[in-house]
What does this fold into?
Amino acid sequence: MKKLSLIIPVLMIIACQQKNKHTTAANDQQLVSDPHSFSNPAIAYVKHLDLDLNVDFEKQQINGKASWTIDNKAKAKEIIFDNSKLNIEKITLGPDETPTTFSFGKEEEFIGKALKVAISPETDRVHVYYTTDKQASALQWLTPQQTAGKKHPYLFTQSESIAARSWIPCQDSPGIRFTYNAVVTVPKALLALMSAENPTIKNDSGVYHFKQVHAIPSYLLALAVGDIAFKAVDSRTGVYAEPLVLQKAVWEFADMGKMVTAAEKLYGPYRWGRYDLLVLPPSFPFGGMENPNLTFITPTIIAGDRSLVSIICHELAHSWSGNLVTNATWNDFWLNEGFTNYFERRIDEELYGKKEADMQAVFARHALDDAIADMGATSKDTHLKTDYTGRNPDEGTNDIAYEKGYFFLRSIEAAVGREKFDAFLRGYFDGHAFHSLTTEQFLDYLNKHLIQGDPKLEQQIDVKAWVYGPGIPANIVAVGAERFKVIDALLAKWQKTGQVSGLSKEIVSSNEKRYFISRLPADLTAVQMSALDATFHFTASNNTDVQLAWYTLAIRHHYGAADQRIRAYLIENGRMWHIIPLYKELLKTPEGAKTAKDIYKTARGNYHPMTYLAIDKLLK
It folds into this structure.
C-alpha cells in the first residue's frame, strides 16, 4: 500500500457514558491520539449533526448542508474537520449563519486533507454547504441494471473505516461521538434509509426525516436510497430489500428476533430500539456492516436454507461490541471485531448448539493460522494492538483483529471460567455504554475488575503476549469439533475405496461441506472432482461459502466443468473476501491470469470502489 509522507498527530475524544437511555451526546471527554484524523478535539469538537441532503442520481452527487453543534470549551478560533474530495461551497456560523473563512491543509494519502474553519470563542454552530465528488470513496451509485428490479437506480454508503469524510465533512474518528437528525430528499419512486429511526414505506414527497438519539462515531453514518420495501419479522425486527428479494430474505432471516433475545440474555439489553436488516445489491463489498438500527447485509447469504445466517449474529453482536463500546482508534480495531466474533459464536451456541459453535471455532483457528502464515510469525501486524500510522486503516481489516482477538477472549474465559467472564463482559458493556476506548483502557479495566492483582491469573492469561506480542501465544485454547472427526474418518475411507455414494447423506451442513472440501488431498484428480461434484453438486451450489471453497479447488485443479459458474460468480458477486481469493488463485498461472483479466473487464463496473481498487492492485 502507499505510504503517508507526513503524519500529523491529532487528538481524539472518548465520549462519556450516557446520562440516561435517551441522552447520549458526549459531555465529559477523554483525549487520545488518532493518526487517521486531522481533527483536534482538544480545541473544539462536534456533539450533534443536523444534516440536509439532496440525492441527485443524474449527477451522481449529494448536495448537502451539515450543521454541527460544537463544544468550544477552549474558546478556540478554529475547528478542524476531515475532508476527502468534498466541494465546499460556503461555511457559516451561528443561528444567523454569519459567513466565515475556511482553508485546507495539505492533501495526505489515505486521509484526505484538513478543513480548517475560522470560528469565534462563542461559536456553537457551524454550517457547511457542500457537494460530493463522483469519486467519493463511501458512495456507490448503481444503475437500474445493477439492481434486482432493473427499473430504478440505487445508492448506498460504506463509511468504515475513514470514508465518512468523503460524503459528509466531519471529525472522522471513532473516538468522537455525536447524535444526529437528517432530512433527505430523493426521487419520489425511491425510499431513503439511514443508520437511525427509519420509515417503513415510501411517501409522496420523496422527503424523509431521520433521528439518531444515541451518540455514534462517524463511521456508523449510513445512507441507502432505492426501490426498497419492508416486512416485519416480529415486533422489533424486520427486513428491508428490493421487492423481488424481500420474501426470500424474510424467510431466510426468520430467526432475527430469537438472535436479539439470545444476545440480551448474554450481555444485557439491546439499546438501539429496532434491529432491522437492509439487503443490498450484490456489489456490497462486505458480508455485513453494523450500522445502528439498520445492518447492511449482502444478498450472498440468502442461500435458501438458512445455512449462512450466523453472519447476522455477528452484525447484531456489534450492537454491543463496536456500536455501544467502540474502538477509540483504528489501531484498537480488535476491540470491535475480536469481541464481536466471541459474542457471535456465543449467540450461535445459544441458538444452534455447541456442535455448531465448535465447528466455527475450528474455522477460526484455521483462519488465524493462515493470517499468521501470510504476514509472518514475527510481524508487528500480528499484534492485537497495531500501528497503522501512515497506512490505510482498512489494512487492519484482517483475521488478526477478528480471530486473534476472539482467541484472546477465549483464553481469558478458560482462565476464569465462563460464568465469571460473562459477568465481567456484562459489566464492561454496561459500564462503558456509548464510550470509545483504547486497548490500554480496556486492559486497565481487565486488571481492575477481573485479574485484580492475582499473579497466577495474570500469568495464565498472559496479556502481554496476546496484545503486544507477535504470532500465536502458547496458551491459545485447543479447539475441535466432533462432526469434523467424523468427516476425517469418512474422507480417509473415501481415499481408500474411491466410493462416493452415501457421502452426501453424511456430510450435510454448510460447515461440514466447507470442512470436507478443505481437507481434500492436494493431488485430487479431475475424475475424483467430477465424482464428488456429481454427488454433492458443489459447482451448482447457491451457498457462497461452499462455492468459494469449491471454486478455489476447481481453479487449482483446472476443473473446467466449473469455469462458467466461476465466471458468473465473479461477475455477479461483489463481496470482497469471497472474490479476491479466487482472483488470487487464478493469478497463480499464466492461463488463469488471462482468464482473471478477461472476467474483470466485465465485472469491474459491478464492484464497489473498495473492491475494485484492491483487485486493480492485484492485476497490475
Remarks:
- The longest strand covers residues 45-56.
- Residues 325-468 form a domain with the Neutral Protease; domain 2 fold (CATH 1.10.390.10).
